[in-house]
Amino acid sequence: MLQVRVIARQQEAENIDSFVLECIEGGKLPAYTPGAHIDVEVGNGFVRQYSLCGEPSSGTWRIAVLRHPASRGGSQSMHDAVQVGSQLQVSTPRNLFELAPAPHVVLVAGGIGVTPILAMAKALSASGTSFEFHYCARRPEAMAFGDELGSSAYADRVHRYFNELPDGEQFDAARLLRTTHPESHLYVCGPAPFMEYVAGAAYSAGWPGDRVHQETFSPATPQTDAGSFNLKLVSSGRVIAVPKDVTALQALLDAGVDVPYSCENGVCGTCLTRVLEGKPEHHDQYLTSEEQACNDQFTPCCSRSKSPILVVDL
Fold first, then answer.
1. d(CA 82, CA 75)
2. Is the pLDDT of residue 69 over 80?
3. What is the mean pLDDT of residues 90-114?
4. Residue 209 falls inside a structural domain
């Protein structure tokens, strides 16, 4: 974890503010690759993940935060308590949404999901890679970084859609994804229903799973209301009971098992654990549907088990 200071804060759209961070100890913050995110301790014990949306090698980091109306404390704390001069504890960047080499890239953002997509667009433009950028928001006032995109070197590749403006162009994922380059890669980020809509259109159009990339934005709700089950640790043969009102992660921690974790919402993948026997009940938004179908790993922070016992690589 690193100690950083907020050196700039700016309103980017309705209920969306950006925060620029610098290293308290001096020097530059580490460079990162487009699509990377950091964990931020936002107060009251909450840790949240925010995508980096500035210049990867600038030595500072920029994040943008939507004040969510149903905030459990994370975005509300960032908006209400964090000002220029505030100090935060953050992780080093991790990238679970890496750009892959491709002759053409289709970028699709919904709302605050623009943050990793913005960093990708900058990198693709700088490298001369062919790409197009489709950005959806409710209305112009809700579109973050609109002015920045309009003055960018790739402004002519940005297509904007507003679903609350009946006279404006409406985003049609099925039409878009039927007509793109056959070796394109798709990157989509936004609210879960939006990503499901875009990815579903891609699969229906015949896109293979390895060319459809998503970054989950909305966290899952940890499941603690399903049936009880057991976890068997392959290293020792120890069996740990997971009651119906306790997450698998909490049961492991209570039993003294050292499991790395961060978001506790099935988003970040930090606690991802290999499954050797049994059938997980997936509730995460980190694994793709294809990865979930393999049933060889699960996120104990929110997922459970369909079988009486899961044998895990712990």
1. 10
2. no
3. 93
4. yes
Residue 99 lies in a domain: no
- Paired residues of 189 in beta bridges: 109, 215
Residues 138 and 65 in one domain: no
The fraction of the chain above a pLDDT of 90, given in percent, is 71
Residue 118 structural domain: 104-216
The region that residue 244 occupies, defined by phi over 0 for left and psi between -120 and 50 for alpha, beta otherwise, is: alpha
User: How many angstroms separate the Cα of 269 from the Cα of each of 46, 67, 98, 266, 284?
Assistant: 17, 24, 14, 7, 9
pLDDT at 215: 82
Helix (H, G, I), strand (E, B) or coil at 202: helix
What is the C-alpha to C-alpha distance for residues 241 and 254, in angstroms, rounded to an integer? 11
The CA distance from 298 to 259, in Å, is 13
In tens, the pLDDT along 10-68 reads 999 999 999 999 999 888 999 999 999 998 988 766 778 899 999 888 999 999 999 87
Please check whether residues 109 and 211 belong to one and the same domain.
yes
For residues 212 and 115, membership in a common domain is answered with yes
The CA distance from 160 to 157, in Å, is 10
H-only helix segments in 158-261: 173-178, 192-204, 248-254
Domain final residue pick, 195, 216, 237: 216
Residue 74: both structure tokens together: 């994370």
Number of structural domains (the chain) is: 3
CB atoms under 10 Å from CB of 236, counted, come to 9
Of 31, 65, 90, which closes a domain?
90
Instruction: Return the amino acid letter for 298.
Output: F
Residue 170 lies in a domain: yes
- Using one digit for the tens of pLDDT, what is the confidence trace for 178-221? 987 789 999 999 988 899 999 999 999 999 999 999 986 555 45
Distance separating alpha carbons of residues 141 and 46, to the nearest angstrom: 29
Q: What span, in angstroms and rounded, lies between the C-alpha atoms of 9 and 247?
A: 37
